[in-house]
Specification:
homotrimer, alpha+beta, six-stranded mixed beta sheet, 49% strand
Amino acid sequence: MTEKGSAVEAEAIRRLLAEYGRLLDLRDAQGWAGLFLPEGEWIGGERYGAIRGHAALAEFVTREFSTTPPSVHIFGNMAITTEGERASAWSRWLLVEPDQSGLRIALAGQYRDELARTGEHWRFRRREVVVDLPLNA
Amino acid sequence: MTEKGSAVEAEAIRRLLAEYGRLLDLRDAQGWAGLFLPEGEWIGGERYGAIRGHAALAEFVTREFSTTPPSVHIFGNMAITTEGERASAWSRWLLVEPDQSGLRIALAGQYRDELARTGEHWRFRRREVVVDLPLNA
Amino acid sequence: MTEKGSAVEAEAIRRLLAEYGRLLDLRDAQGWAGLFLPEGEWIGGERYGAIRGHAALAEFVTREFSTTPPSVHIFGNMAITTEGERASAWSRWLLVEPDQSGLRIALAGQYRDELARTGEHWRFRRREVVVDLPLNA
């Protein structure tokens, strides 16, 4: 892959990162799990540990969001580095939820990603989710 | 257009999407309307319907923002797909406003865009604005 | 530089913009200052004036953040224009902090950047930080 090609790949990766949030906010557990490689991992720190593979990922999201309010995930600060069929990314996320008087930012954190291209599609090999605020979350 | 060119076009589209928010927060109704094609449409759901063409768009923004507090629109999660002189995009937005005790997120939603390039410039053919939160907004 | 190359450069600039927030939220004053050219400037309006050069920049961040709560800076709406070894950028930022009952947006504003490439790296020549909300901040 040429250096020029890397900008096209980064664009495709941005679409993947956006899709992660869109499907999560839709509670589309199967679609969301499908953004990972078959053996891909979602790593949620001490609280959640590592969730691996499509079936476990879909089950995890279904369970975790079964009792939560509707959400909007907004992402920014995307730093993407591609190298052939692999890439890494760092980005920021906010979770916005309704509360009694309007909307609130429930959580704020960062994603650390390892990505792989399989054929036409970029997928998560490993997404590590760090919650930065609130401190005791 | 080559696949490589699509990354350059996506960059130009990101500038357009940013300009939409910048001009809106400046209350520059004419400049903002000029980001649409002459027959371009802004679609605001049941509440606002479809606003079509530069004059109607500028009038709409002037009217809607005449009594609102100052705003900051922040955008993220931009998923852009280009195909020659056309493109589509999906993205997230938050509307931040002052309230009694500081700042609040007044609204959170998504944009669904159809874009077209005319000469040097990308413009909105159709921007659909969906409010996701609060649920009853 | 070809037009195609500009998308690769924009990608590198997005990594720089993300790194600015990441290092700031880590309170890594030296690393953060190193994102500027040796004579690079951070311009903070009437309140802060212009801070110039690595030593002054690092000292500034160390001092300003010595008594502040932990932060998450989230960035969006990045509009990047490259021209060879120079570039300009406009973007939006929110500063998220903990408060008594959860998280709040403490400040919201815009960045206006002039950037330069030195060898492999893009650096800030001049970053102007504008606070838009709250109005009296």
